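Hello,

I think I submitted the uracil job twice by accident. Can you confirm which output corresponds to this input? Input:
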Amino acid sequence: MNFKDIIAKKRDGMELSREELEFFADSAGRGSVPDYQLSALLMAIYLNGLNDRETLDLTNAMVRSGDVADLSGIDGIKGDKHSTGGVGDKTTLIVAPVVSCCGVRIAKMSGRGLGHTGGTVDKLESIPGFNSSLSSEEFIRAVNKCGICVTGQSGNLCPADKKLYALRDVTATVGNSSLIASSIMSKKLAGGADCIVLDVKCGSGAFMHDIAFARELAEKMVGIGKGAGKKIAALITDMDVPLGKNIGNSLEVIEAVETLKGNGPEDLRQVALHLAAKLLQLAGKGSLEECLALAQSKIDDGSALEKLADMVAVQGGDSRYIYDTSLFEKAKYSFSIKAKKSGFITSMETEEIGSVCVILGAGRQKKEDSIDHSAGIVLEKKTGDYVEKGDVIAVLHYSDETLSAPAAEKFLGAVTIKDEKPEKRPLILGTVE
Ligand code: URA
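Support: Only one job matched these inputs. Its output is below.
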């Protein structure tokens, strides 16, 4: 098969066969075709799209490019959750222990942050000793021991996606629903869970800025999952403003812990509870209302907090940090950003705010960059709030003195203050089942 002919076919708007998509994924996984040809085909797909059959074939081919996790050594129903990426999104740290307390095994592989979005592995690694590089055997042993394990992507899972995602990131070809759906679903199918809840983020901090695009993506992913025999649903949730108040790795662990203690911000509590309840419903634990109540009860009785601490301990981390978050190392400096005028905050450009966190050292521009786990932002005000001139909108935390000026300037540029109160956006914008 000639790769140039496949590029030309998609460039001219034609449909690719299963064999051609398999050749594409296989070549990407093995590195047998140069990056410039892979990138050219990605751009042709980005511009001309893939139909449902092509998207499914590409997903399956990416799964086959590597290993599939064998979770047969874990008893019971296995659940998984995936977010398409956002700012301040620490829901996994709440959903996973809550659901695990209800008897659904959580065997989850998570990613690191890249660009303006955070990653669960980076957050957990802010806990001293926490090991997110478990072998398959250690992963299964951990789930069997305490019912939950969140680790980094191990072994040779979806090497085609690894390659293509890195190329998409630098060739402006991330934002295509078929490419995003096949990328996420290949990893979820290779991850081996029985039930999957997807959190499709929508708004200025998400890849999907509008609801039509978010719904299209959610429908594609749910269709692929169902085709593979999974119990799967997607919630479309708001990412037009950061979720919760804390952004940055240890700051987000602290906020997740507060939420598990019943003291977290309401938006975070609501989104996490709805995701947990949907996953419990998929696992056959009752109606959505019953599952919402069940999930809340695991926060109220303290068992979900204990479960998170158990998971941290089993993965080598110091679980005292979960019970006493004052142990987390603090950033050296902090800087309060004040409102330049009075009025309502009508918008927060959330991707820009995520980028401020990267400037502060909490995220990475390139994969190999190291991060400062204590850096980040605590929002004192959010979209919809009224501020007087001089009120503190946010506090920046950082350990390199030179960072505050560019970060503060970028933050202020991302916040709009006007006289009229903005309309409130719902937190859950839709469900696809
Ligand atoms: N997350 C992924 O894993 N893949 C994408 O394409 C986008 C978000």
